[in-house]
């Protein structure tokens, strides 16, 4: 069976090998350039003396070329491509063309036939997904440190272990779709649609809740918090009684604070504090002096800021859990494919 | 006498249609059995059930002493070639031969190569680019290379030219003769003249049921055509089973399965050619009640 699998996929294997080699060379060459850029920027900061780069390097520093960066983001699609080009046709194309009938009339059971073929393709998917991810994770290193948002959707998804999970899932999804639909193009369409849906559901609805987020309280008016590259979920203000203050969509009042992005409208503060703000337009900040006075007043009334977030050190826990989810989904889909093949007539 | 195939009440129902119902047949080992019947009679379904590619919804089958199933030992013993000649279109014949070597415990690669070379079928050309007849030859060569104990061939000669057809049937006959009872063949075809040349056993399916099954010589022996004056056929029908009747104004022609000697001297007893026998049973199954041929005969 292994010989037959190799004979069937040798061209695809060669193409994947060539593409991976080209990608590796490009990642290493441009990755070294990016790293050099990063180090020279750091040493420039150091030479300029303390205070030249407050809070690290400026986030506006552009690393690497835009084209390569785009290509790196595009590796988001690698698992889907594997599922579409290799997974979906595995059963569908052979059933559609009747070629499966040749293998099934040799002295090999259908279960073994699928086990060997699916086994090799899943291994290939894991290796390809893993290799691309290793390259991307290394290449992204400086940019990760710079942007400090490794949890960002689109960045989290192309690094670490999750691409391996996605690749296995996409391959298994393609195989199962092929087993159920038995026609190549519809199986490909179903694979793509379900893969994108599953990924989006997990990324946007499940991922934020994988671990209970942490709520941190901070004094009003703090500029930055030393939490590192956290994943901020929500932010806001609590009153002296500890109740969250609900913020209006728009305000005609001036605002203060706002660690998480949006400021606290002055008109929601106790009257004594409001008086300190002085005149100003809606959404704008009071003059520095007035701002300080208002903030101090609000602090005296016990008003604080809060952030709901996933701590930076949970990055690998999140990677591990999400990889696990997709590996389990892949196992379930494979079980479906085997069950369908066993149950149905050839 | 060992049986290569034995089924009892074998039934295959799909969601709406019954492809095969209550099929009880047996084929002794070492025979070449002709599987005949109109289109849609269930020939392919029967072969697929016997090959272990489909599972029956009722009844049971015993093939080479076991129930057809997904098991390497069973699969190794049965060579099945579907009508569509399933092959990997982008593989060459040589690729298939090498694949077969990896997929079977017994594999005679040289047999397949020699045969295809003899037939001038290119070994290193993608089978998708071969002609239909050449593809069929590749399929047949691969099926034979497996050295099965039971060959199930679904319309194997349909795509072949008359010479290739005769050539292949001769090969099949000599393979069975050489095997000395160790090789049994069931082949379906519409070309009864071809089948008559090499087959010694007949299975006739019609309307998803087995109408006839047995040794061809014995079947021909027990079926006769009775030609006589037009008169009340009730006594004949009591003694024999009338398969088909044709009546003109003065004369009755009855194809009967004999239940004993024909006593009435008014009837002339004639042998029936195999093709006539097959056609009569096909027709009888399609119009079981009134017998359409009777109506036609009377109209003329």
What this model shows, in words?
The complex is a heterodimer of chains A (346) and B (300). By secondary structure, chain A is mostly helical. Chain A contains ten helices and five strands. In chain A, the strands form two sheets. Chain A has a three-stranded antiparallel sheet with strand order 1-5-2, with no helix packed on it. In chain A, strands 3-4 form a two-stranded antiparallel ribbon. Chain A starts with a helix and ends with a helix. With 300 residues, chain B is an alpha/beta fold. Chain B contains eleven helices and 14 strands. Chain B has helices spanning 43-51, 72-77, 93-103, 109-118, 132-145, 162-179, 192-198, 216-222, 234-239, 274-286, 292-299, and strands at residues 3-13, 18-23, 26-28, 32-36, 58-63, 78-81, 150-154, 184-188, 201-206, 209-215, 223-229, 241-247, 251-257, 268-271. In chain B, strands 6-7-8-4-9-10 form a six-stranded mixed sheet, with helices on both faces. In chain B, strands 1, 2, 3 and 5 form a four-stranded antiparallel sheet that branches. A four-stranded antiparallel sheet of chain B has the order 12-13-11-14. Chain A binds chain B through residues 1-4, 7-8, 97-112, 342, 345-346, and chain B through 48, 51, 53-55, 70-73, 75-76, 78-82, 84, 86-89, 91, 95-96, 98-100, 102-105, 142-143, 146.
What are the defining features of this structure?
heterodimer; A: 346 residues; mainly alpha; three-stranded antiparallel β-sheet; two-stranded antiparallel sheet; 5 strands; elongated; B: 300 residues; six-stranded mixed β-sheet; four-stranded antiparallel β-sheet; 14 strands; disordered C terminus
């Amino acid at each position: 069976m292994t010989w037959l699998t190799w004979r069937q996929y040798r061209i695809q294997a060669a193409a994947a090998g060539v593409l991976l080699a080209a990608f590796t060379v490009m990642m290493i060459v441009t990755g070294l350039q990016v790293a050099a850029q990063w180090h020279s920027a750091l040493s420039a900061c150091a030479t300029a003396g303390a205070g030249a780069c407050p809070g690290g390097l400026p986030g506006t520093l552009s690393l690497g070329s835009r084209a390569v960066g785009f290509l790196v983001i595009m590796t988001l699609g690698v698992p889907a491509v594997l599922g579409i080009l290799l997974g979906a046709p595995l059963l569908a194309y052979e059933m559609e063309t009747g070629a499966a009938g040749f293998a099934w009339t040799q002295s090999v059971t259908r279960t073994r036939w699928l086990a060997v073929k699916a086994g090799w393709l899943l291994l290939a998917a894991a290796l390809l997904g893993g290799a691309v991810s290793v390259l991307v994770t290394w290449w992204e290193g400086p940019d990760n440190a710079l942007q400090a948002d490794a949890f960002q959707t689109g960045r989290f998804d192309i690094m670490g272990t999750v691409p391996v999970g996605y690749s296995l899932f996409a391959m298994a999804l393609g195989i199962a779709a092929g087993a159920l639909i038995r026609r190549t193009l519809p199986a490909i369409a179903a694979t793509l649609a379900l893969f994108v849906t599953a990924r989006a559901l997990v990324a946007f609805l499940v991922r934020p809740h994988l671990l209970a987020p942490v709520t941190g309280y901070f004094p009003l008016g703090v500029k930055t918090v030393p939490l590192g590259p956290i994943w901020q979920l929500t932010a806001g203000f609590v009153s002296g009684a500890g109740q969250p203050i609900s913020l209006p969509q728009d305000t005609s009042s001036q605002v203060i604070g706002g660690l998480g992005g949006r400021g606290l409208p002055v008109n929601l503060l106790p009257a004594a504090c409001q008086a300190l703000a002085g005149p100003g337009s809606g959404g704008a900040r009071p003059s520095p002096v007035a701002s300080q006075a208002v903030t101090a007043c609000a602090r005296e009334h016990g008003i604080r800021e809060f952030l709901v977030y996933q701590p930076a050190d949970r990055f690998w826990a999140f990677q591990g859990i999400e990889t696990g989810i997709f590996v389990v989904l892949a196992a379930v889909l494979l079980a479906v494919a085997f069950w369908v093949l066993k149950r149905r007539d050839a | 006498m060992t049986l290569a195939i034995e089924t009892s009440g074998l039934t295959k129902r799909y969601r709406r249609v019954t492809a095969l119902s209550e099929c009880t047949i047996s084929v002794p080992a070492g025979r070449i059995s002709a599987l005949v019947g109109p289109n849609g009679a269930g020939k392919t379904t029967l072969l697929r059930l016997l090959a272990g590619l489909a599972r029956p919804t009722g009844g049971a089958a015993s093939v080479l002493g076991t129930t057809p199933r997904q098991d390497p030992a069973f699969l190794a013993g049965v060579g099945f070639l579907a009508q569509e000649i399933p092959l990997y279109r982008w593989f060459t014949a040589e690729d298939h031969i090498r694949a077969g070597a990896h997929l079977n415990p017994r594999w005679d690669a040289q047999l397949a190569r020699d045969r295809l070379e003899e037939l001038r079928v290119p070994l290193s050309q993608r089978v998708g680019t071969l002609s239909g007849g050449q593809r069929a030859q590749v399929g047949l060569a691969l099926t034979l290379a497996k050295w099965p104990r039971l060959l199930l061939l679904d319309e194997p000669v349909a795509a072949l030219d008359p010479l290739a057809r005769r050539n292949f049937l001769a090969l099949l006959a000599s393979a069975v003769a050489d095997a000395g009872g160790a090789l049994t063949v069931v082949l379906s075809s519409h070309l009864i003249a071809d089948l008559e040349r090499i087959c010694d056993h007949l299975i006739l399916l019609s309307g998803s049921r087995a109408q006839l099954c047995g040794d061809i010589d014995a079947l021909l022996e027990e079926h006769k055509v009775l030609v006589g004056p037009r008169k009340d056929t009730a006594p004949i029908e009591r003694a024999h089973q009338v398969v088909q009747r044709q009546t003109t104004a003065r004369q009755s022609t009855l194809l009967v399965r004999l239940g004993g000697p024909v006593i009435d001297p008014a009837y002339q007893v004639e042998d029936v050619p195999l093709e006539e026998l097959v056609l009569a049973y096909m027709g009888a199954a399609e119009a079981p009640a009134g017998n359409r041929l009777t109506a036609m005969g009377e109209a003329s």
